């Protein structure tokens, strides 16, 4: 049995997690944290410091403004934590790195299996193409998303840059740029509209040939399930400190 606290429990992802946890007998939502309270089957608090329920792990899908304090409180309570919030500042990312030395901490801008497999594919093809192909990333999300570009677009860009001979400068949109589009740049473009759960396309454009890799999230269930798998993984490692491999994705 895994006892879970969800930070951001009333948000889109918080509600998705509630559904997933309630559908499984091996998981219990012992408490939620959010800015407001509602009538729920589980207790809800405004901060982890107020939570007295016994928990094995915290899962966070909230907002940058909430993450640093949450991580400090996880360290104080020695609670493993899965951080899925994107749009984190450099200071917050630094805090995650430091905290991961004392508590099990898993961070990824994208909890889906598909994006994590895509990263491996991109790292294989990039060395063969980077000298002759421009690389551009286009991401599409729902119109309520607070950060742009998406954390996943940055994660994909960093994964490409990590294996590139020449480190590429990120260009966010191309307004006002002369149309040279040199090979040492990588364009990252954000589209916002409707209810799109998330789509990422990486385009390798060469002379007379184009390769495109596209991942489409058809529901938020893939992110909730990935976060729950991460929670189970770090809980098993609780007996020792782990600097999880995904934490490396925040070293930009
Ligand atoms: N890593 C991954 O795989 C995924 C990551 N995400 C990321 O997760 C985050 C949440 O996404 P989503 O659920 O769509 O966003 P929502 O805005 O729907 O939900 C966020 C929730 O967190 C609450 N919140 C905001 N600030 C605080 C705070 N200071 N303390 C406690 N709660 C707070 C919000 O309250 P209020 O409504 O009052 O602002 C809201 O209830 C985003 O950063 C998103 O990019 C999303 C999907 C997948
Ligand atoms: O806000 C979202 O919805 C999503 N955010 C994450 C991101 O910024 O990459 C992951 C996913 O694409 C959905």
UniProtKB/TrEMBL annotation:
Binding residues for (S)-2,3,4,5-tetrahydrodipicolinate: 142, 151-152
EC id: 1.17.1.8
Binding annotation for NAD(+): 8-13, 84-86, 108-111
PANTHER family: 4-HYDROXY-TETRAHYDRODIPICOLINATE REDUCTASE (PTHR20836:SF7), DIHYDRODIPICOLINATE REDUCTASE (PTHR20836)
Domain Dihydrodipicolinate reductase C-terminal: 114-239
Chain's gene name: dapB
Role, per record: Catalyzes the conversion of 4-hydroxy-tetrahydrodipicolinate (HTPA) to tetrahydrodipicolinate.
Cellular-component GO terms for this entry: cytosol
Biological classification of the source: Bacteria, Bacillati, Bacillota, Bacilli, Lactobacillales
Name this protein carries in UniProt: 4-hydroxy-tetrahydrodipicolinate reductase
Protein family (similarity comment): Belongs to the DapB family.
Record's keyword annotation contains NAD: yes
NCBIfam families: dapB
Organism name: Tetragenococcus muriaticus 3MR10-3
Keywords assigned by UniProt, alphabetized: Amino-acid biosynthesis, Cytoplasm, Diaminopimelate biosynthesis, Lysine biosynthesis, NAD, NADP, Oxidoreductase
HAMAP family: DapB
Active-site residue numbers: 141 (proton donor/acceptor), 145 (proton donor)
């Amino acid at each position: 049995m895994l006892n879970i606290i969800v930070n951001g429990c009333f948000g889109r992802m918080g509600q998705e997690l509630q559904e997933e946890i309630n559908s499984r007998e091996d998981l219990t939502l012992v408490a939620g944290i959010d800015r407001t309270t509602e009538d729920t089957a589980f207790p809800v608090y405004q901060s982890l410091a107020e939570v007295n329920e016994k928990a094995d792990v915290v899962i966070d899908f909230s907002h940058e403004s909430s993450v640093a304090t949450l991580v400090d409180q996880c360290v104080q309570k020695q609670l493993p934590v899965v951080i899925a919030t994107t749009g984190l500042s450099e200071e917050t990312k630094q805090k995650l790195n430091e905290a991961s030395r004392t508590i099990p901490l898993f961070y990824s801008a994208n909890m889906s299996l598909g994006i994590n497999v895509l990263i491996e594919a991109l790292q294989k093809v990039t060395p063969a193409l980077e000298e002759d192909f421009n690389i551009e990333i286009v991401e599409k999300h729902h119109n309520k998303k607070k950060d742009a570009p998406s954390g996943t677009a940055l994660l994909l860009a960093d994964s490409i840059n990590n294996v590139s001979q020449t480190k590429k400068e990120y260009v966010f949109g191309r307004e006002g740029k002369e149309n040279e589009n040199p090979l040492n740049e990588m364009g990252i473009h954000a589209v916002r509209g409707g209810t799109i759960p998330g789509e990422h396309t990486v385009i390798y454009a060469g002379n007379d040939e184009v390769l495109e890799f596209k991942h489409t999230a058809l529901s938020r269930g893939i992110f909730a399930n990935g976060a729950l798998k991460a929670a189970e993984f770090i809980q098993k490692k609780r007996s020792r400190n782990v600097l999880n491999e995904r934490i490396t994705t925040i070293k930009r």
